[in-house]
């Protein structure tokens, strides 16, 4: 399965839904603008990003809070990075408020996306402050050698289309 996302104004992105009624698009917003996301085999975006879904847990919901950890990984480090996620404990899935997890490998470029969706921003903060988070992330202060650059987070609130 593949995942696709593109950025734009919320008005522009919502027009995509009318053009592609058979695709379940998820709409999100942040302080930098809107994002449309969906999972399928075919790309409908003229400009956007394509990913292979390597790990999939839970179901993405139309409501919630999404955190994407964007991690640039060196080419030679990709197998180690992917294996680290395949071997990890499933502690995040057991946390209150957890909704979905995806490990997304880019078709172009080298920036993987670790996508998590939570019922609320507070649920995500509770995860970040938990002993399970500290155990999973091993209290790392220095990035692993396979990181090509510093990871960065992007945070989104799902757009509730019923609020119109």
UniProtKB/TrEMBL annotation:
InterPro entries: ABM_dom, Dimeric_a/b-barrel, Heme-degrading_MO. PROSITE patterns: ABM. It comes from the Bacteria. Keywords: Monooxygenase, Oxidoreductase. GO terms for molecular function: monooxygenase activity. Residues 65-158 form the ABM domain. The keyword Oxidoreductase applies. SUPFAM superfamilies: Dimeric alpha+beta barrel. This is Antibiotic biosynthesis monooxygenase. It comes from Virgibacillus halodenitrificans (Bacillus halodenitrificans). The lineage of its organism: Bacteria, Bacillati, Bacillota, Bacilli, Bacillales.
């Amino acid at each position: 399965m593949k995942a696709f996302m593109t950025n734009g104004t919320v008005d522009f992105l919502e027009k995509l839904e009318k053009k592609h009624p058979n695709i379940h698009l998820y709409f999100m917003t942040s302080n930098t603008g809107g994002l449309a996301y969906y999972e399928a085999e075919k790309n409908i975006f003229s400009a956007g990003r394509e990913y292979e879904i390597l790990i999939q847990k839970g179901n993405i919901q139309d409501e919630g809070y999404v955190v994407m950890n964007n991690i640039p990984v060196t080419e030679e480090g990709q197998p180690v990075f992917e294996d680290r996620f395949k071997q990890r404990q499933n502690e995040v899935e057991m946390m209150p408020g957890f909704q979905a997890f995806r490990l997304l490998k880019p078709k172009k470029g080298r920036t993987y996306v670790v996508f998590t969706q939570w019922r609320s921003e507070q649920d995500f903060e509770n995860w970040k402050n938990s002993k399970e988070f500290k155990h999973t992330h091993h209290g790392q202060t220095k990035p692993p050698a396979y990181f090509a650059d510093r990871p960065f987070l992007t945070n989104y609130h799902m757009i509730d289309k019923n609020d119109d």
